[in-house]
Amino acid sequence: MLSSTPLSTVAWAFFTGPDLVKVINCLPRPGSSDAASTTTSTSCSVGYFMFLFGSNKMLPKAIIRIQEPLLPHPQPRRSSGSYRGRAEINRVECPEEQSVSKRRIYQLTVMAPGEHHAVDVEQLVSSMETTLSSQSFSMCPDSCIFPTPNILLRHSRKAYTPTAFSIGPLHHRKAYLKRTEKVKQKYLQNLVSRTGVALKDLIGTVAKIEADARKHYAEYIDFRPEELVKILVLDGCFLIEFIRKHSMKDSLAPENDDPVFTMSCMFQHLYHDLILLENQIPWIVLDHLFNLTRDPQNRQGTSNASSSINWNSPDDTSLLALVLEFFHHILPGDPKKLQVKTGQPKSRHILELLRDLLISNSNTNGPLKDENTWPPIPSATELETAGVTLRRSSSPGLDISFKNGVLEVSQITIQEVTEALFRNIISFEQCSQNCLPVFTSYAILLDNLINSPEDVDRLSKKEIVDNWLNPEDATKFFNELYHDAYVKDFYYPKLCYDVKRYYQMSWPSWRTSLVQNYFSTPWVVASTFAAIFLLVLTFLQTLYSVKGDPHKGPK
Fold first, then answer.
1. Left (φ > 0), alpha (ψ -120 to 50) or beta: where does 440 sit?
2. Which UniProt keyword terms apply here (predicted)?
3. Would you list the domain boundaries of the chain?
4. pTM, 2 dp
């Protein structure tokens, strides 16, 4: 097709990526033999480009075919041989190149100044009407695994990106995550050989729910059903075998050459990667695989909607219990006291399960629709100065309450993986249709409480914050946690109003000032009472001197 085109110039170029090459330099220069031999027509120069996407290798040569050179602009030029005009790039079809995977051909049109193409209005209207008629705002109600919004991703990309393990389809094609695929394959092999369950049965079980599992992903999954089933079986069986080995409730001992247990860094990778929103696998997949690979007498439907977990029972090997046993190191408070609220919808993946457990004991008062009407509470330092008592709550999860001048807050553990956990929960609440922003509201309260390293130190002394970072980093973490997260419904309005009202009262502040200045230590208390005693004696002596001796008469 291209060879039949009359050419005055043929240029060759190499490309190392999808960026377009600058072709202006390939055009004939003023005064050159090519330019002199051309006509005075200002018709467009046309170049054909072939780009091969999705390859790390050097892309093939691109043929630049110049039909007619662009004449120099009559106005003064900055340098000899420069051109001024307009370039348009259009995708064109190339039937003979269909055998090349993902090959695209572009047409570069360099237009002379003042030259315009006529717009085919009817064709444009027809194209736009076809596009608009296919658009819809509807989202599958089962969608619960979302790509992280860019507005949140820009704050901390590492908090949303897996470091070693790809779980599910969203990061499956990442080259740097391929190194752990052999580990997952080895775990699948061990699971099959240990349980005696045929690989065919595992694949068949997941194949039956493939359509439902696909609906859990809000983003289009560019995998065929067979490919998605393969990913879900491999990743799901790896997770199940890993948490069983970790718990050792099935008397499993990891092999000496198992890198997950022999390399200390692997656990940190897993703590991080398994809580990422983009790195989730539907719970129904884990549930079916876990139940299929249990002991025959225990093969029954499992659920994460149970109201509590019996941590002390050796027979309690539910999927929920095993997952929480692995994550209890990164959960605040005592995970053995965590309970899922009765009647709460079943969690759809691991991250949602952790969120539901964290907020299960939240003392919320219902949403406040207008986010601009609730008053922010003062910082921890300001509250203590005003007479508010800060106290660690014994409730598990993320509980916060205020009563009679006492603000009780559940203990919060701040470590490296905490940022990833909190940020991904907030991202999940921001994306999910029916997920209440309770955790995001809690993050706002934490930002109000902590404004400086001094606030972190005060809360650490009260054992409210178990800080593994330095105070400056912890302060930055709290202050930037919910940035760019929109809170339509705030879930702690009454607490904010009560704290603010108490903070503005005078008597608590005076009482606190009195205690801090005169009753802070035993020596200060003794000095205060001594001063009061001397003051009383001085007053009595003065009073006696003024009145005189009543037994003596006048002289």
1. alpha
2. Membrane, Transmembrane, Transmembrane helix
3. 9-74+81-116, 150-343, 380-504, 521-546
4. 0.71
